[in-house]
Amino acid sequence: MKKLTSRALTALLISGAPVAFGVDPISSSKNLPLTETTVTVPVTVPATGTTIIQVTPETRAILQDRMQRDRAADVAAAMQIKSEAEAQQVLDSMLADANAAAIISATKERARIRTEEAGRTEAARLENIAFLSRRLRGEVAVTEAPASYRSRIIVADPITGIQVVRKTQPRYYDNNQRVVTYRSMNEVPPVLIASSKLNRVQVQAVAGSPYATTLVPVERRPAEYSSAGAYAVTYSVDPNSEVTRDDILFVQGSTDFEDAYSQDLVVDLAMAISDPSLAGANFVIEGHASAEGDYNANLALSQARAERIVREMVRYGVSTSRLVPVGYGENEAEYPAGAADNLRATDRRVAVFRMK
Question: Distance (Å, rounded) from C-alpha 171 to C-alpha 252?
């Protein structure tokens, strides 16, 4: 196993070479000895093999999701909302991590993970944040992105060996509406019910709505998601503000961040949204999954991960009143369940839009 020094890894990042962290299930450091002050994290670097980045227990705690919710209680609370003030209280209870103070002291609450642990440079952070702010304002195209914005994950077609360049294809309905459906009102995530009470999203029965006939088919989506009893959550976005990342990684089946790089990218987004030029703008944070496993489970996990990202942004100063987490599951996956895993991995992504 080849190891890179932090200086060598930093040089790779400055040069713009994408670096993939923790995405190779074959490469593992689980059997490596841990020190009293650090935890080892496997990092896959293209063309060089696997290296190990040391992170402190404090950083490891940041990566873990300590917030456990009682969904039945959250649904009941959302259904009983009678005013906008109550709706905001419900959102705060679900998206503001009250346990964060128990993990990190108040003086360090908004301190960023060290660049060495994230495998980045301060210059890359600042350059990326500046670009994200412009992109979220709709002022710049993704093709104009700097090297610091590039995904660290390189994916090659398993047959041709040619690098795959992700082409996101969000589905827009009339007035740039985004739409996701649920089998019943009881399955609509509580955060979205509360958000609808604040007019940030709309929740409506599919029957009798335009989506009863215009909803784009999804191969593995059960019929119940477009039946008479189904409900749709809709909202309008600015397509020119889209930011999509396929390298914010999570532990399999979990809402824990896979590595410090992933958490650091989320903080970049929080900093960009906090730019004074975007004051007053609201944003949707979408979670997307690849098309394998159970459709229902994919939808639920993508929602949980979107909420985790929002909680992380709130920790770094963004108000819950400006963020809406929405899980899409595999509804917009480009590759089928039988495709190679490295291709399906590009469908496991996070998308951010400025809402209209």
Answer: 26
Query: How many residues are present in the chain?
Result: 356
Distances (CA, A) of 188 to 36, 141, 207, 266: 44, 33, 16, 25
DSSP letters spanning 11-42: HHHHTT---EES--TT---TTSPP-SS-EEEE
Residue 246 lies in a domain: yes
Residue 177 covered by a domain: no
- How many Cβ atoms from other residues are within 10 Å of residue 105's Cβ? 10
**Lowest-pLDDT choice from 41-45, 85-89, 252-256, 287-291:** 41-45
pTM score, whole prediction = 0.84
What distance in Å separates the CA atoms of residue 145 and residue 131, rounded to the nearest whole number?
Answer: 7
Whether pLDDT at 235 is above 90 = yes
Cα separation of 277 and 304, whole Å?
29
Give dist(CA 292, CA 212) in Å, integer.
26
In a domain, 16, yes or no: no
> Would you state the pLDDT for residue 143?
92
Range of the domain at 272: 97-169+237-354
Residue 148 lies in a domain: yes
Residue keyed to tokens 């935890």? 39
Q: Which CATH number does the domain housing residue 253 bear?
A: 3.30.1330.60
Give the chain's domain count.
1
98 pLDDT band, cuts 50/70/90, is low
CB 113 within 8 A of CB 260: yes
